[in-house]
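Colleagues,

For the teaching module next term, I've prepared a clean inverse folding example: a structure given as tokens, and then the sequence designed for it. I'd like students to try predicting residues themselves before seeing the answer, so please don't circulate the second half yet.
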């Protein structure tokens, strides 16, 4: 499933890049990409909640889902989901606040640093725990990449001059 999430995230980034390459990106295309990334992140939150409440055997145990105590993590995730949903819906409706190039470029840089930090985090984890290769403890890393993609796409949209 994690590979599928990574493939879906890469495909959504490609859709955005293609739409932005031809000129001013269409807010509805950007909104659809952001909505799909929001759904991916919502699946992570739902999966984690399912593991915490039901403990199904087809999903990894709680320890593999987060480093932060869950009582702090869940409200943060819900806040992210609400914000991501509001932004996605706004763009799907074709509305936007307009270009904000400096803020957009800052978001792109932040997203790139964020994604790079997750790649380093993955490399460090795999070097420290070779018995867990390739997927042990990677759920948070993969979904941080989804969040980085969301920030990148939103930044790319607002950076457009």
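(Answer key — instructors only)
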């Amino acid at each position: 499933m994690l590979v599928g999430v990574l493939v879906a995230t890469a495909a959504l980034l490609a859709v955005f890049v293609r739409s932005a390459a031809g000129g001013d990106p269409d807010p509805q295309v950007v909104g659809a990409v952001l909505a799909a990334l929001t759904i991916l992140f919502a699946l992570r939150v739902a999966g984690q909640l399912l593991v915490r409440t039901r403990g199904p055997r087809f999903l990894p145990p709680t320890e593999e889902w987060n480093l932060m105590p869950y009582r702090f993590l869940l409200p943060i995730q819900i806040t992210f989901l609400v914000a991501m949903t509001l932004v996605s819906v706004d763009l799907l409706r074709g509305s936007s606040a307009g270009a904000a190039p400096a803020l957009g470029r800052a978001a792109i840089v932040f997203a790139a640093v964020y994604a790079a930090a997750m790649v380093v985090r993955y490399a460090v984890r795999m070097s420290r725990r070779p018995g867990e290769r390739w997927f042990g403890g990677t759920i948070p890393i993969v979904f941080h990449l989804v969040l980085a993609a969301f920030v990148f796409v939103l930044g790319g949209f607002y950076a457009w001059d």
